Amino acid sequence: MVQYANPLGSGGHVSSLTILSHNSTMSDIEPNNTLPASPEALAASESAKPGPTGDVLKLLGQRFAVFREARPLAIGIHKGLMKLMPELDAGKVRVAMRRHTGSTRYLKAVATGDDRYGLEGQVDGKITAEQKQQAADALRERFKKGADRRREEIKAKQEEERAAALEKERQEKLQQLAQKFARH
Q1: Counting beta carbons within 10 angstroms of the beta carbon of residue 20, is it exposed (0 to 12), middle (13 to 18) or buried (19 or more)?
Q2: CA angle, corner 14, sides to 77 and 149, nearest 5?
């Protein structure tokens, strides 16, 4: 269990979050230069009503550089987001924010950064030493789990290769025996 500053909570209270080994990042999102210019036009567009959480993240990444660049978000940023984009489902936004703030790229930004940013990229608060430590701890745990998983995968692969080699040797011996008795 890892503690994190919940950007969706009020007043910057610390909440608990179980970090999953999901390595999603915003790095694969490319800006869409064809976005409608006004919020009204955006609301009318098809992309304003995204289905899955990934669509919400993509839309946020297209519209706001702080999401695209995985900058540490201001506490309570979801409130401003919902005012600017009321057409978004609050539940999907909450899940998308949790996914974004739990990404490795975002946690690295919090662990190494000093400032939090608003939707337009303006500085909107500081990252506390405790929040930096929590992000660093979450990253350390994530990397440790990844290393453990890779070690287990290597061990399993070696076991498979050893079993395959033994089976091949067994088959060769059986073939030799079959040839030996076939001659008599």
Answers
A1: exposed
A2: 100
Do residues 154 and 26 make contact, with C-beta atoms less than 8 angstroms apart?
no
Specify if 182 maps to a domain. no
**CATH number of the domain within which 46 lies:** 1.10.1710.10
Residue 155 covered by a domain: no
Q: Is residue 179 part of a domain?
A: no
Q: List pLDDT tens digits, range 157-182.
A: 999 999 999 999 999 999 998 888 88
State the residue range of the domain holding 86: 2-143
Beta strands 115-117 and 123-126 are antiparallel
Tally of domains in the chain:
1
pTM beyond 0.85, yes or no: no
Residues 115 and 16: their CA atoms lie apart, in Å, by 22
Residue 63 burial by Cβ neighbours in a 10 Å radius (0-12, 13-18, 19+): buried
Residue 122's closest CA among 60, 77, 88?
Answer: 77
